[in-house]
Design brief:
With about 550 residues, the chain is an alpha/beta fold. Helix content is about 40%, strand content about 20%. Strand 15, helix 15 and strand 16 form a beta-alpha-beta unit. Helix 3 runs antiparallel to helix 4 and helix 5 runs antiparallel to helix 6. Keywords: ATP-binding, Nucleotide-binding.
């Protein structure tokens, strides 16, 4: 279906892909993983032909394979209706019927023309698929939260999340033979995610997808392609993401043991070589006073000295060989964030109390009445459909928007920190150092020491916030909350757009936090690893989701 052979790509002097090779067979589903910015999207662009590689080749079997490609930031035609866009993606049945009729006439006049026969077969297949697509379109739009929007709605009237989901719907409904998906789970709630997983599991086409959703990768792929940010090469691992982790764990343990064994051998050889060198110097000297030595003694010790010197040289050559041709590199260290717990003060037992609370905007009620109490040390995750009121609840607790009714009050000694979905609280013109200095009275040395626990090392502290990656901003926001002594964290989609290592670091850091956490998260692996309680928004109410609490 797809063969990528020794593909390389550089931007200026910076290599992004080096001799990348892999195959994707019919029905196979591969997940492409790697750090943000390592070249995953670049590889998809090369496969689709929207970007030219410097070397290597990309071939398809058949050569005219139907490709569906969901890119990040897909630009949809603003002045087109939803119906027209999807009709174009699937193929207009009337236009396809005319094309089939035209090709049939040409084929009757040239029945031996194989190229014409292939074109006719493909047009006929597209027509059959288009005729079958009406019910699929309705179901797909419904499952992606677009079913209630009139089909004559212009695309420019949709929100950013709705546009992303419409783009995904268009790609899925185009019935591709090869499906390329770049972060397809963005802007999907839990039910949408589970539907997409089931859809991908059922389809027969080949799939290559980029995702940082670990449970999604566990459920839909049968192989992992790891793009290394240092070598810019790809390695393939059989199985899903959990299988990949296990293989990497075994590899790392073996590499570490091989490294330790080699270091022990090098130390042993160096000690032996040093001993042989000392012996060689003794033999070379013979008797202490050469004027009193006889001829036999001088010759005997000279010969023994040469033999011993050669033994030392052989040992040193073996050491050099171990350090070059047989060198085992020390496994790279995985840096982890470390939360400074000394700055977290303890609040009262009741952190947030909600009594008959109703939330929404203006006169629009989203959820209520809510009767819940958040207690010290709780780790609560909010789930539910997009637009059900999860972010609204956080803003109501923060008193950023008024409650529509009822009571929402903070407990004794609660210091609340809020991490907004789009990080509106950070000033893009300040450096990392200046940002943290604004929230505390520490010296520059103390601030830099504190920031190092959040992986801002050396000159990184002077980088303007506007130049930080999404993951770096999330780390900085968490550092600010902890530095202020916050003991209640309200987190609105804190790990959106983070790559897998960054998500794992954030989880690890947050797990060490001794205060209370209320978070809006759609990453199911994060929920599984971190949450102690899950609240689900449904039908205007909040209820415990026992699926996660078991």
């Amino acid at each position: 279906m797809l063969t990528v052979n020794k593909v390389s790509k550089s931007f200026g002097v910076k290599p992004v892909l080096v001799d990348v090779s892999f195959q994707l067979n019919e029905g196979q589903k591969l997940g492409l993983i790697g750090l943000n910015g390592c070249g995953k999207t670049t590889l998809l662009q090369i496969i689709t032909g929207s970007l030219k590689q410097d070397a290597g080749s990309v071939t398809f079997t058949p050569v005219d394979v139907r490709i569906g490609y969901l890119m990040q930031g897909l630009a949809l035609p603003d002045n087109t209706t939803i119906f027209s866009y999807l009709n174009h993606q699937q193929g207009d049945p009337l236009e396809l019927a005319r094309e089939v009729e035209k090709l049939a006439g040409q084929l009757s006049a040239r029945p031996q023309d194989k190229q014409l026969a292939d074109a006719y077969d493909q047009a006929l297949t597209r027509l059959q698929l288009a005729d079958e697509s009406t019910s699929d379109t309705e179901q797909t739009l419904s499952m992606l939260g677009l079913g209630d929007i009139p089909p004559d709605t212009l695309i420019r009237q949709l929100s950013g999340g709705q546009k992303t989901r419409l783009g995904l719907a268009g790609v899925l409904l185009s019935r591709p033979q090869l499906l390329l998906l770049d972060e397809p789970t963005n802007h999907l709630d839990m039910e949408m995610l589970e539907w997409l997983e089931e859809w991908i599991q059922k389809i027969r086409c080949a799939v290559l997808l980029i995702s940082h959703d670990r449970m999604f990768l566990d459920d839909v792929v049968d192989g992992i392609l790891e793009l290394d940010e240092h070598t810019h090469t790809i390695r393939e691992f059989a199985g899903n993401y959990s299988d990949y982790l296990q293989q990497k764990r075994v590899e790392r343990e073996k590499q570490w043991q091989d490294y330790v064994n080699q270091q022990d051998e090098i130390r042993r050889l160096r000690k032996a070589a040093e001993g042989v060198r000392d012996l060689a110097r003794y033999h070379k000297g013979g008797k202490t006073d050469p004027r009193k030595a006889d001829g036999f003694s001088i010759g005997f010790f000279a010969n023994r000295g040469k033999e011993t010197t050669q033994r030392a040289k052989n040992l040193e050559k073996r050491i050099e060989h171990l350090l070059t041709d047989e060198r085992v590199d020390k496994p790279s260290r995985t840096w982890q964030m470390k939360v400074d717990l000394d700055t977290v003060s303890e609040s009262g037992r009741d952190v947030v109390v909600m009594e008959n609370l109703s939330i929404g905007y203006g006169e629009r009620l989203l959820c209520g009445p809510i009767n819940q109490t958040i207690r010290y040390g709780d780790r609560i995750v909010l789930t539910g459909a997009n637009g059900c009121g999860k972010s609204t609840l956080l803003k109501t607790i923060m008193n950023q928007i008024p409650a529509l009714g009822g009571i929402c009050r903070m407990g004794t000694g609660v210091h609340c920190g809020y991490m907004a979905q789009e990080q509106e609280t950070l000033s893009v013109n300040l450096s990392v150092l200046q940002t943290l200095q604004q929230v505390g009275n520490q010296s520059e040395t103390e601030v830099r020491s504190f920031l190092s626990k959040y992986l801002f090392m050396g000159d990184d502290v002077f980088i303007p916030v506007g130049q930080l990656s999404y993951g770096e901003r999330v780390r900085l926001m968490l550092a600010c909350q902890v530095a202020q002594g916050c003991n209640l964290l309200l987190l609105d989609e804190p790990i959106n757009h983070l790559d897998i290592p960054s998500r794992e670091r954030f989880e690890q850091a947050l797990s060490e936090f001794q205060g209370t956490v209320l978070a809006v998260v759609h990453d199911r692996m994060f929920i599984k690893n971190f949450a102690r309680t899950v609240w689900k928004f449904a039908h205007g109410q909040i209820t415990p989701d026992y699926k996660w609490n078991l």
